[in-house]
Amino acid sequence: PPLWGRGRGGSPPVALRKLCELIGVTKVPTSVIEYSLLEACVREACKDDTPVKLLCVLRPLRVVLTNYDVEDTCIEVAQGGAELPARRLPFGRELLIDREDFMEEPEAGFKRLAPGRTVKLRYAYTITCDEVVKDANGDISEIRCSYDASSLGQRPPKGAGIVHWVHASDSVPVRVRLYDRLFAEPRPEEQEDFLSAVNGASLEVLEAARCEPCVAEL
Q1: What does the DSSP assignment read for 98-137?
Q2: β-bridge partners, 198
Q3: What is the pTM of this model?
Q4: Whole-angstrom Cα distance, residue 165 to residue 178?
């Protein structure tokens, strides 16, 4: 896609300039630049220009902490810059994590939550999955976990993954647009009709995502 299209897709101008610096100019008309190079430039630009990285759950899965028997509270998280106030993350008995961070039958190399496994909630506590609850269709509707009250501020156990989370009710609903590659083929110009190579799933809109409350202040 043209550069203005990449800008509409969320690529910051500094990333596009960095890409141009890296690829230079070639006289070979068939030369192709790997798309992953653009992705690397975008990640680098976002890392430098984004002082606050918020917790967001794209596809929420409810988590109930069965041994959490105190009132909901807030966890304060210091910001990267000294001029920024601390973030306050509501924490309580009912939370949300991303569905991709849980597998009932984990594959090899999967480091996140699964039955009997422990993970670290970023900036918060460690939790262990004790029970999986399914609906009438057999789909997972809820997972019940226990939390370690002494794990706040501690490093996660060896081998445990770290996952994003938000409070189930004290979080903000957001619409998230996920942009993938425009073409499903690496060389669409080689197709008889290049439009046949368009990736029909290049844009996915998530309407049920949830983010930590301070996103409303940005």
Answers
A1: EGGGB-SSPPTT--SB-TT-EEEETTS-EEEEEEEEE-TT
A2: 183
A3: 0.83
A4: 19
